[in-house]
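On clarity, I found the account of how folds are encoded harder to follow than it need be. What matters is that the chain and its backbone geometry are given together, residue for residue. The format is easy to grasp once an entry is in front of the reader. For illustration, here is how one protein appears when written out as sequence plus structure tokens.
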Amino acid sequence: MDRRDFCRKCVAVTAGSWGAAFFNDTNLYGSDEKPLATVPDLVAVSNGEPDVMFDRAIEAIGGIGGVVGKGQTVVVKPNIAWDRPPETGADTNPLLVKRVVEHCVKAGAKKVYVFDHTCNNPQKTYLTSRIKAAAESAGGVVIFADDQKDYQEVSIGKAVTLKTAMVHKLIVNCDVFINVPVLKHHASTGLTIAMKNLMGAVWDRRFYHKSGLHECIAEFCLYRKPDLNVVDAYRVTMANGPQRARAEDIKIRKSLLLSKDIVAVDAAAAKLFGSEPAQTRHIQLAGDMGIGTMNLEKLNIKKITIKTPQRSA
């Protein structure tokens, strides 16, 4: 199936029809017409293109300046694991990565690094996903993360399973860590979102799989939580993830979630997908550990629906 046929067969589902329970719950959300009195804990944007939705989401929490300072070193960590083009939804949307990098550069960051420890050959995944070109055009520094010498061992206090990990040196040493996953089905964990995306920051992923996948995913956050999490839910893989989705498995949902709380953003993304957060075990574990808030009703959540018709990304 060529790219044009794949795109034609993807199911287009607007936020209004697929996610009414999520976006229209007035008990949870402040709207554009009724702003929240405080800075939101989580922002949910729908009906826009990836770059525009990020603009609106970051504006809602006071701008990128509240995350990135002048002269700081930033790591932007998308999902670039798979040698598949953007229309398949396997990797983070390149337009979103580009916009995140642009905001960081504009904020005065000294360096903005972009990388992932990929599953497929990184020389291929970085090109096929179009993330390398997008990030570099925005002023980002794209590096490969396939050399073990670039990882250093860290201790993870309070962890029961993942007591140590080999973590990429840029994650260890950066001032700001921005996590930009894509929401999709995953055969091993049910869903892959923000916490699962952090597996691309460690060297030995086999340890996760043989020792307790959900436990390790949650416990990594005891070492370092991202300063900001931006969930790409523009194209959502509903089945056969993480990288074998057919066109009929992809839904065009034109949504984005943003939060500094990695557990909250994963819980919201699970709801967005159509499942309960507790059904994804590492979300429940992380909530139980106090890493973040899984109960969305305890949060100030800002809902934004973009009304201007836009192009398709």
Summary: The chain has one domain: 3-304. Residues 29 and 235 are 23 Å apart (CA to CA). Confidence is low (pLDDT under 50) at residues 13-20.
